[in-house]
Amino acid sequence: MSGPNTDFDPVEVAALQPEQVEAARDAALSAIAEAADLEELKRVRIEHTGDRSPLALANREIGALPPQARKEAGQRVGQARGAVAKALAERQAVLEAEHEERMLVEETVDVTLPTDRTPRGARHPITLMSDRIADLFVAMGWEVAEGPVVEAEWLNFDALNLGPDHPARTMQDTFWTDPVDHHVVLRTHTSPVQARTMLTREPPIYVICPGRVFRTDEYDATHSPMFHQVEGLVVDRGITMANLKGTLDHFATQLFGEGITTRFRPSYFPFTEPSAEVDLLCFVCRNVDPASCRTCKGEGWIEWGGCGVVNPRVLTACGVDPEVYTGFAFGMGIDRSFMFVSGAASLRDFFEGDVRFSAAFGTEL
Question: CA triplet 243, 249, 254: central angle to 5 degrees?
C-alpha cells in the first residue's frame, strides 16, 4: 500500500499562490474604495465576490489540494474574502448615507411656494344664493320642497287656476314637449311643486321651492329662456296677508340688509286672491334721495316679485278645504336677487360657463 504524497507542492496551483490571492484582494479593495455610487458598488460586488471572481475561483481550488495543504490555503483565501466583504459593507453604509443626504437636498419641497398653481373650481353663485335662501327659511322652521322640471300640464296650469284659454299656455310663453297632445311642458314656474306638496301632505304646510324654470324669453342682459325662481307656500289655519307681509319683510332684511322692507302694489295672479306685486326698498339710496339713484331710477323702490293669498280654487283643486285652511304664496327670481346683492351687470354671465365669473362670485355672500 502506498502512503500519502508528502512531496506535493501547493505552489503549483497558481490561483492559490499568496501573491495571486493578495493581488485579487488588493484589486477588490481598490475597486470598492473607488466606487462612486451604489450602482457602481453593485457592479464591483459582482465582479470581485461573484461566482466568477478570482477569489471565488481560488476558493474552489482548495478542494483539489491534499489534506495537509488545505488549511493554510483555506486561511489565506478566507482572510482575503473576509477583508473584501468587510470593505464592501463599510462602503455600502457610506454610499447609502451620501445617497440619503443627496436626496434630501435634491428632493426638498419648498413649503413657502404657493399652493394654488392648479386653481380649484368654485360653486356657481346661483347655487350659493339658492342654498342661502333655503337656509334662511329652514331656520324659520320651513321645509325645502322639490319637483321635476318636466311637468304635467295640469299641475303647471290647471291646478293653479290657469284656465285652458290663459295666454301663458301658448307657445309664446311655454316650452311644450313632443308630442303636444301628451300635455307635458317644461315648467314655467316652481308653483307645480306647491301643488304637488298640497296633494301629498296634510296642512299645516310651510315650504320653500327653489329651482329652474323655462319660458320662451329672448336671451339678453336681463332675460333668459332658462332661469331660477324661489317660491314659498304656507297653508294653515288663520293665515292672512299680515303673515305674508311679515314673512317677506324678514326675507328682505336677511337677504339685503337691516332696514330693507317691502311694499305691496295691487295686482292679479290666477292662483292668488288678493294678489300683489312686491317691491323692495332701494338698498342703495333707501328712498332718501331717489332722484339721483341709478339703481331704482328715481322710484325709491325696486320690483322684486309677486305674492298673494292662495286662491280657494287652488286649495280645492289640490284637496285642501278652503273653509278650514287659508294660505299665502310668493315668488321671485333667484338670478335677479343675486344681481341685486352682487351688482352683476348681465344675466348672460350666469350661463356662459366662464370659470372666472364663478371664481369672482362663487363664494358665500
Answer: 125
Distance between CA atoms of residues 309 and 330, nearest Å:
9
Task: Answer yes or no: do 186 and 148 share one domain.
Answer: yes
What are the cell numbers at 291?
Answer: 332722484
Taking the alpha carbons at both ends of the chain, their separation in whole angstroms is 112
Q: What are the Cα distances from residue 104, in Å, to 94, 110, 266?
A: 16, 12, 76
User: Domain check: are 210 and 307 in the same one?
Assistant: yes
308 pLDDT tier (thresholds 50, 70, 90): very high
User: At 349, is the pLDDT very low, low, confident or very high (cuts 50, 70, 90)?
Assistant: confident
- The per-residue pLDDT for 1 is 45
Mean pLDDT within 67-75: 75
Residue 292: all three cell numbers together: 339721483
Is 77 inside any structural domain?
Answer: yes
Interacting residues of 284 by C-beta distance below 8 A, sequence separation 6+: 293, 294, 295, 296
Q: What angle do the packed helices 54-61 and 38-49 form, to 10 degrees?
A: 20
| pLDDT recorded at residue 228 | 93
